[in-house]
Amino acid sequence: NPVAQQPSVPTATRRKKIGILTSGGDASGMNACVRAVVLYGISKGCDVYAVYEGYQGLVDGGDYIRKMDWRSVTGYLSIGGTSIGTARCMAFKTHEGRLQAAENLVKHGIDSLIVCGGDGSLTGADVFRSEWTGLLDELITAGRITVDEAKTFRSMTIVGIVGSIDNDMSGTDITIGAVTSLHRICEAVDSVDTTALSHSRAFVIEVMGRHCGWLALMAGIATGADFIFIPEQPPSDEDWETSMCKVARRHRELGKRKTIIIVAEGALDKNLKPIKVDRIKDILSDRLGLDTRVTILGHTQRGGSPCAFDRILGTVQSVAAVDAVLSSSPDKPFPMIGMNNNKVTTQPLMDAVKLTHEVAEAIESRNFQRALELRDSQFLDEFKVFNVTTILDDNSIELPDHQQLRIAILHIGAPAGGMNSATRAAVRYALNRGHTIYGVANGFSGLVRGLFEKMDWMGVDGWTTCGGSHLGTNRAIPGKDVDMGMVAYQLQKNDIQALMLVGGFEAFSSLVELDKVRSEYPSLCIPIALIPATISNNVPGTDFSLGCDTSLNVIVSASDAIVQSAQSSRRRVFVIEVQGGRSGFLAVEGGLAVGACAIYIPEEGIDLPRLQGDVQFLKGLYDTDDPEKSEGRVILRTEGVSTTYTTKVISEILEDEGGARFDSRTAVLGHIQQGNTPSPLDRIRASRLAIHCIEFFEKHTCDALDQAEYKRQEGPTELCTDDDSIAVIGIHGVDVQTRSVKELLPVTDMKNRKPHEDWWQRDRALVDILSGRSYYSSIE
Ligand code: ATP
């Protein structure tokens, strides 16, 4: 092998040339990938080339391979699909096609390739990389490249990023495009809901997912569907027709006017026979007499502007991909960039592909248990969440009488998307376990006035899709705003044995106050748990609080509209004020998702030198008569960052300093950030945390209740006194974690109302890098 024997030209001596291509089915967020590879690659001193039309462009070469500059990707973040095109390319599956692709790469001087696509595209990339030196030899022999060229490109670095709406790739918790697709599905099902309700109809809705039921399962939870069909888990206890009819009939008996069935396109019965929507429709019409319609969502699921999550995911993964290119060596296996436990990871691609294929094999061999296990732990957990919140009368999960609890739920602080979803899931699961559950109106203010109301299964129907707080929420903190003695008295009077709080930092402060005085009041010796819900995402003990994803999406769509206005007016910088109290979460993650040119966050503050620097930066950006370079820009400012440099003051300074180069306007997003309809992620997180909350209550009461039963005595008044039984139930990576108040206090900045450390600070620097700060100063 003559090429392999040649020493390669040291990378340090030549500029890295990175190619980026998108391949396979398009996915929203692919453009965020292309943008981040281009901008971050350039900021790292690389040349970046876009390969248009996926592998087809690599095979065809010529104008399909184009050098990108900083401005080539303007506006990409908000555009769905992929602006550099994608294709399914038969030629690349042939040796001749790949030989041609190799020649085109060498001729363009490209030494690294980042491929964003599904498992097929990444498998193709792996084949290409494994053949690389052989392809170079063939090209030399055929006289198509010189030995010197081959020497320079002796090794080809390839890095994979998974773009797929099905979320069907193992080795990563989530793939680019899946969450946007879920948004489209939930929007459609929410719309179908209202017509189904009006006509009392049944709808059978087919969603994508040939081998993976992620979209169907998540949509089922997020929309409160009555039944789902997924490839990994066919209904198994009896024939599926009977299982489905039993559930649908029961729900109708309870008073539901609509029936929603969600079906993954690859759904199978336990004998591997496809379950098709028309068959389901016939069954519902014939056996239950329901007026049933079929809706196949099809390609609408791929479309539309990417949600905040996919923009951020595409961006941070692509930055990691460029870093992987820069740190690559020929002996390392082909890396795939993934997302595991809320962290960007790098792992051997083919391990992930192998695991992915194992799921399909497990389904084919009817080993459904294995197929479910091969999905991540979150998938299994969520499968349970769906079942326990939709199937009533599941006697198999009912607890013995003496272990059944009286649980109260209350909402505290400002409304946040997901509060109602959490309440619905808690009520339904609690009822299935045999507990009695009470909603308390208006937080602790209502609690001290005894506003307890027993909740039932139908009473929370439809709550999962509703924003705000149906129970009513209030900022009062026990021991501060309302009398602690009255709180204890009402809990005792209503014989409450477990307390579920849903809220933000006020709710955490309430937990702290309750913990302090617990030993003084026997009725507080019960398990008390907080499900974090606040758009500021500032509650300790969780990566994400309910509502923060909804809020990010509101900021993204509002900012897109504002950018469009600024684009049209030209030479305009909008200062957008976002909420968040003393937490910069919304500004940092929102800034990344909308491509802000600056952000101001409380953690950093604002001072004159900082403002002067930003004014200079903006003057540089607009220092041209070229109309092409007059695009509108946005700055995000957290409301609590400074009392001096208000949104208005900053905008006026920019307006004055900008002179003829640019002007400035403000936009205060205010309470619309608290969201109207909760995002799918908030609904799903809420449902999951609620189930874990009920399990937490059971865990901390079962011993005491068993003891009482054993002694045949009345239930004990003090059910639990251990520190662990007052806790925050939050999300850590993909897991649900429970951390006691005592454990969380040392990591909490009570004065600034936030944790001492914020995971999202890791994204802070990226906002500036991708705004072009260092790039523009380097070319001045
Ligand atoms: P999706 O998940 O949307 O289906 P995908 O990347 O899996 O995306 P595929 O159609 O399987 O989509 O693959 C996309 C392209 O990748 C193919 O058209 C082909 O060009 C290339 N490709 C796939 N498998 C191989 C292979 N084994 N060898 C070479 N190229 C391949």
Tell me what you see in this structure.
With 780 residues, this protein is an alpha/beta fold. It is 42% helix and 16% strand. Strands 12, 13, 14, 15, 16, 17, 22 and 23 form an 8-stranded mixed β-sheet that branches. It has a 7-stranded mixed β-sheet with strand order 3-2-1-4-5-10-11, sandwiched between helices. Adenosine-5'-triphosphate binds next to α5.
Query: Which structural class do the helices and strands define?
Result: alpha/beta
CA-CA gap between termini: 46 Å
| Rg | 28 Å
Low-confidence stretches: 1-12
Helical segment count: 27
Give a count of the beta strands, DSSP E runs of length 2 or more: 25
Assess the beta-strand content as a share of residues. Answer: 15-25%
Hetero compounds: adenosine-5'-triphosphate
How much helicity do the residues have? 40-55%
pLDDT averaged residue by residue: 91
Biggest beta sheet attributes? 8 strands, mixed
Inertia-based shape? globular
Helix/strand layout:
Blueprint: H1 2-5, E1 17-22, H2 30-43, E2 47-51, H3 54-60, E3 65-68, H4 95-108, E4 112-117, H5 119-141, H6 147-152, E5 157-162, H7 178-199, E6 202-207, H8 214-223, E7 227-229, H9 240-253, E8 259-264, H10 277-288, E9 292-296, H11 308-326, E10 335-340, E11 343-348, H12 349-364, H13 368-374, H14 377-390, E12 406-412, H15 419-432, E13 436-440, H16 443-448, E14 452-454, E15 473-474, H17 484-493, E16 498-503, H18 505-516, E17 528-532, H19 548-569, E18 572-578, H20 585-594, E19 598-600, H21 608-621, E20 633-638, H22 647-658, E21 663-668, H23 680-699, H24 702-710, E22 726-732, E23 735-740, H25 741-744, E24 748-749, E25 754-755, H26 764-771, H27 773-779
Parallel strand pairs: 1-2, 1-4, 4-5, 5-10, 6-8, 6-9, 7-8, 12-13, 12-15, 12-16, 16-17, 17-22, 18-20, 18-21, 19-20
Antiparallel strand pairs: 2-3, 10-11, 13-14, 22-23, 24-25
Helix pairs in contact: 2-11, 3-4, 4-5, 5-12, 7-8, 8-14, 8-23, 9-10, 11-20, 12-13, 14-15, 14-23, 15-23, 19-20, 20-26, 21-22
The structure holds adenosine-5'-triphosphate.
